[in-house]
Amino acid sequence: MGRAMELREIEIFLTLAEELHFGRTAERLHVTPSRVSHVIKKQERRIGSPLFERTSRTVRLTVLGEQLRDELLPAHQRIRKALERATAQGRATEGELHIGYTTPWCAELLLRAGDAFRAQYPGWSVRAREIPFTDPYGSLQRGEVHVQIAEFPVLEPGIVTGPVLFREPKALMLPADHPLARASAVSLEDLADVPMIRLELDTIRSKAAVDTHFPQRTPMGRSIPRGPSCSSWYEIPVMVAAGFGASIVAARAAEYHARPGITFVPISDAPTLDYGVLLPAAGAGPLVEPFVDLLRTQAAGALLHAREDRLRR
Q1: 305, burial (CB in 10 Å: exposed 0-12, middle 13-18, buried 19+)
Q2: What is the pTM of this model?
Q3: Domains annotated on the chain, with CATH
């Protein structure tokens, strides 16, 4: 295209390629139609070929014009978004991010990212809050938090999913005296042999959350016995220790919820439990994207350290 082509000239070309009308293009960009015409002729002279076919009634892109539009448009959109983010961040000298989390290991990641965030943006603070399993997305939908770290999958109105931060193997939290507690691993089919303690399902709005954490059948279709229901997840380890049933958890839960009377056994054939970023579809504020980048960096660093620890063992 030539190094002398300026961003404003690209914008004029792309707008005309969309409007296919010199007057409307000029009106959108707050310039005169003669300015639009001058810029397009300048571009065509530089390239050595027409970009538009013009008649007294119509304006159409040539094949070369279509090719140039298709190649320039994605880059132009990225540049605009980058400038918008930089402008918003430059104006936002102080404020507070509200971040939601669902598990202690999500909270630890959040706090590490928060420390790095405050170092980069001294005028900003980060406030964390635990999200209850019985209202997993309400805080985000109501605008009470800007970002949430939660279990995937999530299909909820008004929410978009960001990157997956880490993936956790699953385990079965069992009473220590249950026969399966002596196994080195269990399978999903073994769930048919133990009652599953669950939250009161009528309080959980997300079908994806129910299917992930409280399945009712094994992969082969066997019924999974239903154990007692609880109103809070923190009641479940108590019920397991008392011998009332089992629960599917992230394997890392053994580091945070171990107690007498409980054993954690890996589930060999279960898909991982993935944790990622949730954002409001309407937009979450000027410094949310940098914070999400820090979450990804911290998560990648934690994964690398975990691998190094395993190698040292």
Answers
A1: exposed
A2: 0.67
A3: 7-90 (1.10.10.10), 92-167+274-312 (3.40.190.10), 170-271 (3.40.190.10)
- Name which of 300, 292, 305 is nearest 110 in CA terms: 292
The token pair at 109 is: 């990641």
Distance CA 95, CA 129 (A): 17
Euclidean distance between CA atoms 210 and 224, whole angstroms = 14
**pLDDT tens-digit series, residues 228-281:** 988 888 899 999 999 999 999 999 999 999 999 999 999 999 999 999 999 998
Are residues 277 and 147 in contact, defined by beta-carbon separation less than 8 angstroms? yes
What does 154-189 look like in DSSP terms, one character per residue?
---TTEEEEEEEEEE-EEEEEETTSGGGGSS-B-GG
Angle at 91 between CA 89 and CA 97, to 5 degrees: 55
198, 230 contact by CB (below 8 A) = yes
Beta pairing class for 147-151 and 273-280: antiparallel
- Distance, CA of 156 to chain centre: 13
- For 310, left (φ over 0), alpha (ψ -120 to 50), or beta? alpha
7 CB contacts (<8 Å, ≥6 apart)? 76, 79
Q: Tens of pLDDT along 120-151?
A: 888 889 999 999 877 888 999 998 999 999 99
Could you tell me if 227 and 176 are in contact, meaning their C-beta atoms sit under 8 angstroms apart? no
Half-sphere exposure of 202 (CA within 13 A, CB side): 0
- C-alpha 262/C-alpha 175 separation (Å) is 5
Strands (E), 30-107: 52-54, 59-61, 95-101
